[in-house]
């Protein structure tokens, strides 16, 4: 019996040092040119047999196990970029030097400052710009986490049963390539692609050489449930509509994409951890009725994160301890069921109608069957899941903490799209960046220039797993200029899209 037939399965993540890494991972997953990159002559101290890692702009040049290549051009290569941009149709007046234009573009592409990163990533304002870094370079390791596949797994887990939507990566590609009328974006795209082609890839990245992402599958009950995975699937489809691409400037569109990805991925892993943590506690109960299993696992309304008033004590507002305990417990329970226990194999002969046990209606009964099948030895092992702190969970903890966390609150590299703010080494509180709520509310409005109501924004946050009072949310929306409160409107207060 396959574990993934009945339970959610996501590849294990690692701390994504650059928020832009998610879009770049999807971009590279769609092409077949990885093996064609030949940047050897650009790498000092080239290490034979080690993979090439691309990074936009180096902070530290030492990378032990890979050949790290900076795609930010040196003075010599700047001429290559300038010529490529000029050939693509970007030609300033005679008083402006073309190299000045190239430098301006390079600075405009620079992403937010990343903690412990080897370099800055480029904002994927066009498809070609996403290739200015690759997963090996961003993570500076030979076998980086497969975030492209993780994104598809989460996206599939939130797909409605009657949905025929394309993959997450294909939706991104259609959106980022779809503004055919914008001549400037097309010229930037052609200029960057031509520059990269000169440095290494054997054919233009603009050619129609896209491949389909790997098909992912998730159990039926998950696709029937309201979870952060459903939020991500729905929100990503809204965002990838052509109206958002044409209404937002390229850099803002890229930043909004990264915001949705980092929020959706992190909340999905936090939900997964809470699911397995709850499952482990249910299996240790003396008795377990199917209706209780279904209620706790499929309809648990307890928030994953609580957004409190800033006046409250830091110990009350802190979310860090809950994040760590949920992820550690959940990791242990998942490992017990997936690797250490043969309880699922013991049930194999009892599962005649697999489709029933995979559905929301039968899942509670399936969990009760597991409960009855546990031996005393199984229960002892399961109890141990809540008593140890496995190192294997640290990567997931860091993924959630750093993806949701605001990288830098002020200055040149300020991050306006974080959800959590660190107040010391111990404490993390929900305190969204200035633009975070703008993205969330705008996606509820569906299209640029449209409106929604407060009820829909609250529903969206609840599905995402964030508990917040009406008063705090209205105050945040007013601060962002998205609504003006009306005392007698209740949840029918109008909320405007950000653009």
Task: Characterise this structure.
By secondary structure, this protein is mainly alpha-helical. Among the domains are: 17-144 and 168-212, no CATH class; 395-496, no CATH class. The chain is 48% helix and 6% strand. The chain is built from 22 helices and ten strands. The strands form five sheets. The protein has a two-stranded parallel sheet. A two-stranded antiparallel sheet has the order 2-4. The mean pLDDT is 88.
Q: What are the defining features of this structure?
A:
single chain, 499 residues, 6% strand, globular, mainly alpha
The number of helices is 22
Report the β-strand fraction as a percent range: 5-15%
Oligomeric state of shown chains: single chain
Radius of gyration: 24 Å
Main β-sheet, spatial strand arrangement: 1-3
Q: Describe the largest sheet.
A: 2 strands, parallel
Structural class: mainly alpha
Gross morphology: globular
Distance between the termini: 49 Å
Helix content: 40-55%
Number of strands: 10
Overall mean confidence score, pLDDT: 88
Low-confidence region ranges: none
